[in-house]
Amino acid sequence: HRYRDPGAGDKMDPFAEQEAWENYQSGKGTLKYGSRNKQAPADYEFVLEDGIDFIKESIMDGVNFEDEMSSEKPDDSTAKNALQKLQEERQTLPIYPYRDELLQAIHDHQVMVIVGETGSGKTTQIPQYLHEAGYTKHGLVGCTQPRRVAAMSVAARVSQEMGVKLGHEVGYSIRFEDCTSEKTILKYMTDGMLLREFLSEPDLASYSVIMVDEAHERTLSTDILFGLVKDITRFRKDLKLLISSATLDAEKFSDYFDSAPIFKIPGRRFPVTINFTKAPEADYIDAAIVTVLQIHVTQPPGDILVFLTGQEEIETIDEILKHRTRGLGTKIAELIICPIYANLPTELQAKIFEPTPDGARKVVLATNIAETSLTIDGIKYVVDPGFCKIKSYNPRTGMESLLINPISKASAMQRAGRSGRTGPGMCFRLYTAYNFQHDLDDNTVPEIQRTNLANVVLTLKSLGINDLVNFDFMDPPPSEALLKALEQLYALNALNSLGELTKTGRRMAEFPLDPMLSKTIVASEKYKCSEEAITIASMLSIGNSIFYRPKDKQVHADNARMNFHTGNVGDHIALLNVYNSWKETNYSTQWCYENYIQVRSMKRARDIRDQLEGLLERVEIEPTSNLSDLDAVKKAITSGFFHHSAKLQKTGAYKTVKNPQTVLPRWVIYHELVLTTKEYMRQVTELKPDWLIEIAPHYYQMKDVEDASTTKMPRGKGLAAD
Ligand code: CDP
Ligand code: MG
Asked: What's one GO MF term for it (predicted)?
C-alpha cells in the first residue's frame, strides 16, 4: 500500500503525523501542523448574525489511499441483504488489508500491542478475526472497554455483522447487566467487569484471548488489569494478550509488557482544517450552539459532532437547539439532534448510528465517549469546546470530585480527527490557538493518580495481593492515596491492623459497589434491615435520574417528591419510600407518571436490587426488614458512610442572633459531594451525633461531635445541602 499526501502529492509515511506528535511529546521536536499540506479547502464564510469569528489556524495532515477507495457505493439496492452489505462494509475498514498479517503476528507472539486510529476496526473486527481463525475453540475471546455504552453498542454491532442474536454468540457484560449465555464466544465487557471476574476465576481459564481495548484511556480498572493480565501470561502460555490503543503511548505499553511487539494499523485519514476562535469565549455552551447553527446554515452537507461534558449539558443544548431550529422553521434544512452519554437508555442509543436522510443534517451531542470509544460515520464537522469532566481526588481530605476541566492536547487531537474519517473535515475549537498551546496539558493524567483507591485496594486484597506498594503498576498511584485507601478500609473494618482482609471485608468484596455502600449492606445484618439496605443501595446506584421535573410542572413535581420526605426522614429514607410505594402498586408505570418518577430508572433499580438480593444470600445475610425502626436503617447507613458526615452550619446569621439557643448543630451523612461552582452534598440524611461514636469509635471521639470548633467536616463552611 502506498499513500499519498492529498495536498502536496508527495509520498508520506502514514504515521508521520503521529510520530511528529510523539516526538513533540517526548521533547524531540516541534509540532507543526500543515507543514506539508498548504492546500486549504474551500473558504467559508459565516452569514448568521452574531456568529463567532474563527481563524483557520492549521491543517492536520491526512493520509489517503493512492488508489482512492471510492466513497461512491455501487448501486446495491437490489437483492442484497443487510448481512451481505455488512460483510462488504467490513472489508472496507482500514484494518481489513492487514487481517492475515495481524493473525500471523498474534500466532507468533503471546503479547502484542496493537495501535490504530479510531474507526479503523480494532474493536469490532479483531475479535471476529480471532474467531474465524479458531481461537474461540479453546475459550472465550474477551474484549474490555472503559465505558458501558461502548461495550453494549459494539457488541450489538458485532452480533449484527455475524448475523447472530445479541447475547448468544456475541454478548456483553457490564455492571448489573450480563447479556451473555452458554453460547457466547465473543464477550465485550467493561474493564471493571473483567477485574471482578478475577475474583471467581483468578487465571481467567475460560478465556483464550484477552483484548484490553482502548488502553490509552488509562482508566483505573484498565491500569489494574494491566498488572493482573501481565502476571497471568507468565504461567498461562496458551493465553493471548492484546493491548489495543488509538495511537500514542504505544512504546510505553510495549515497554511495560516486556517489549511486546507493536502492530500498527495504518489509518486512512483525510486532512482536517482546524479553526480556533479569535478571542476566548465566555460561555462555551452558547458558543457551541451558535457554531452548530453557523455550520448548519453555511456549510455543505456532513454531520456535526459536538463534545460536551455530561448529560445535563447535552440536554440543555438539545433543548435550545430544538427551540431555535423550530423558530427558523422551513428556512433551514432539517437538523436531527442525537444525544449520546453513558446513561442514555439503550433503545435511544441506536439512533446515532442511523444514516442521515438526504437533505437533513445530523448533530451528535456527545460526551467524551465519542472521542475514541465510538465511531459515528458521516461526521464532517467537529465542535470542540475544549472541556471534559474529570474526576479528581484529594487524598488528604479524602474528597473526590467531578470537575469540568480543560482537555489535554492529545484529546483535542483525537477530537479533531473524528471529522476526517470519510472525507476532509473541519474542527471548530471554541478556544484560541494561544489557549491550546499554553493552557492545555499534553496528556490526561491516568485515573489511578487522581482517584480514591479504596475499591481497587479491596479487590486486590481479596485477590490475595497484599503487597500493594510493589504491585506492578504502569504508573504507580501516589503513596498518599494508597495509604488513605488502606486507612479507609481499616476504618470500615474491611482490613485488620495488619492490613489483612477481615470477614467483613471478604463479604464486602462480593458486592460490586463502592466499599461504603457494601459496608452499609454488610452492617445491615446487625440492624436487621438488610431489605432496606439493598433497596437504598440500588436506588443510590442509579444515580441522579429517579425524579423527573418537567419545566412546566415543576411545582407539581416538587410536591410529589416532598410526599416521600414526610416526617423529615432524610433523602435515603425518601428513596426507600419511593421504592416501597412503587412496589406496593405492583410496580405500576401509571404510579410513576403520577408521581413524576422515571419508570425506566425504577425498573433498573429493581433489577439491581434483585441482584443484590442474590448476593446477600451468597454472603449469608438473612433478608430481614425493619421498617418500624428507621433509626436502625440510618445506623446501617452511618456504618458505611461515617466518613461522609458533616455538621451543618446555619448560614442565616440573622436567625442565630435572634434565637441562639435553637441553633443546635445538626449532623448529617451524605452520599456524595458534588463540586460545581459551589460544593454541595447529594442525598443527605440527618443523624444523631452519638451514633458516630457508637458506630465508629476508632474514627470519632467525643470531642469531635461536642466541640463546635473541631469537626470532621470536609471543607469547613460553604457546604450547602442540596
Ligand atoms: O475500534 P476502532 O475504533 O478501531 O473501530 P471500530 O469501533 O471497530 O469501528 C469500525 C467501524 O464499525 C466504524 O466504521 C464504525 O462506524 C462501525 N461501527 C458501527 O457502525 N456501529 C457500532 N456500534 C460500532 C462500530
Ligand atoms: Mg475501538
From this structure: RNA binding
